[in-house]
Amino acid sequence: MFLSSQRCICILIIYTLTPASVETKEKHVLFIMADDLRTTLGCYGDPLVKTPNIDQLASKSQVFLNAYAQQAVCGPSRTSMLTSRRPDTTRLYDFYSYWRVNAGNYTTLPQYFKSQGYNTMSVGKVFHPGIASNFTDDYPYSWSVPPYHPPSFRYEKEKMCKGEDGALHANLLCAVNVTEQPGGTLPDLESTAEAIRLLRGRSDDAPFFLAVGFHKPHIPFRIPQSMVLNRKRVECTLRVGDEILPQVEEFKYLRGLVRE
Ligand SMILES: *[C@@H]1O[C@H](CO)[C@@H](O)[C@H](O)[C@H]1NC(C)=O
Ligand SMILES: *[C@@H]1O[C@H](CO)[C@@H](O)[C@H](O)[C@H]1NC(C)=O
Ligand SMILES: *[C@@H]1O[C@H](CO)[C@@H](O)[C@H](O)[C@H]1NC(C)=O
């Protein structure tokens, strides 16, 4: 199942898995969010982007084609979706308020699953961090265990991009050699590893609701070099609404990385 907001937060995928145990009749839920991802995806008919894994999942899923943005920023959109209330109701339009105190003590989606005996877990960016979720990602109301955050996220705004001069810069766009990054990893790789660890380590005593929030494609675009090196030619297209602007030959940040 897909829902998606147009501009600001996320594509959300709820994927139910049949539990291994015959004891539990409830389905497990894997709930995936991606920050700033919109419907610019193969499964929505986009002719340019390459999204083979999402397309494969979509091919076996119900894809919802009416996509809306609750609010053109992250925090209130997440609050809206996770409390099942529009911003008109929460009256939260920025990042600086916790709904339980400033809107209403609303039950969240994971909280509901938790109240029904589910083991609820949060990995990465699910609730908007900081005061918007009371600096706890709404734990313990929403989650059975403390939420996980990828440790390497702390480098996201630091100078991590090697420039042509060999020095490190804080670029908006940069393809990095992952093994040279601190800890040899990137935040979304850590979140994926943690999600897999939780899935493998689960017990069949209770059904689970596992929320996995990816930080990409939110800026900065610190991405694995391998994602661009395996393309012979990177064509960059700028688009305003439905209008495709004249082709941009090359992004500076890719120079030297792309082998023609
Ligand atoms: C908010 O709701 C939770 C249960 O959903 C409850 O434990 C808590 O006491 C409530 N807080 C207030 C201030 O009503
Ligand atoms: C927010 O967090 C603080 C500190 O952890 C806690 O004392 C307070 O009860 C929390 N607010 C709500 C509404 O649960
Ligand atoms: C990435 O960095 C490692 C360690 O410095 C190096 O061995 C490897 O060749 C680099 N990979 C590429 C594609 O540059």
SSE layout and pairing:
Elements: E1 2-4, E2 10-17, E3 28-35, H1 52-59, H2 74-83, H3 87-90, H4 99-102, H5 109-115, E4 119-124, E5 161-162, E6 168-169, E7 173-176, H6 187-201, E8 208-214, E9 221-224, H7 226-229, E10 239-240, E11 243-244
Parallel strand pairs: 3-8, 4-8, 7-9
Antiparallel strand pairs: 1-2, 2-3, 5-6, 10-11
This protein binds 2-acetamido-2-deoxy-beta-D-glucopyranose (3 copies).
The site of one 2-acetamido-2-deoxy-beta-D-glucopyranose has 4 residues, from loops.
Protein name: Iduronate 2-sulfatase
Family: Belongs to the sulfatase family.
GO molecular function, one term: metal ion binding
CATH superfamily: Alkaline Phosphatase, subunit A
CATH architecture: 3-Layer(aba) Sandwich
Strand content: 15-25%
Task: Compute the average pLDDT.
Answer: 84
**Number of domain modules:** 1
Task: Using the alpha-carbon principal axes, give the shape.
Answer: globular
Total number of strands: 11
- Give me the secondary-structure category: alpha/beta
Gyration radius, in Å: 20 Å
What small-molecule ligands were found?
2-acetamido-2-deoxy-beta-D-glucopyranose
Task: List SSEs in N-to-C order.
Answer: EEEHHHHHEEEEHEEHEE
Oligomer: single chain
Domain Sulfatase N-terminal: 27-225
Keywords: Hydrolase, Metal-binding, Signal
Cofactor: Ca(2+)
Signal peptide: 1-24
What does this protein structure show overall?
This protein has 7 helices and 11 strands. The radius of gyration is 20 Å and the shape is globular. The protein has 260 residues and is α/β, with parallel strands linked by helices. The protein is 20% helix and 18% strand. The strands form 4 sheets. Strands 1-2-3-8-4 form a 5-stranded mixed β-sheet, with helices on both faces. The chain has a two-stranded antiparallel sheet with strand order 5-6. It has helices spanning 52-59, 74-83, 87-90, 99-102, 109-115, 187-201, 226-229, and strands at 2-4, 10-17, 28-35, 119-124, 161-162, 168-169, 173-176, 208-214, 221-224, 239-240, 243-244. It has a single domain, classed as 3-Layer(aba) Sandwich (Alkaline Phosphatase, subunit A), CATH 3.40.720.10. The protein binds 2-acetamido-2-deoxy-beta-D-glucopyranose (3 copies). One 2-acetamido-2-deoxy-beta-D-glucopyranose binds at residues 177, 179-180, 225.
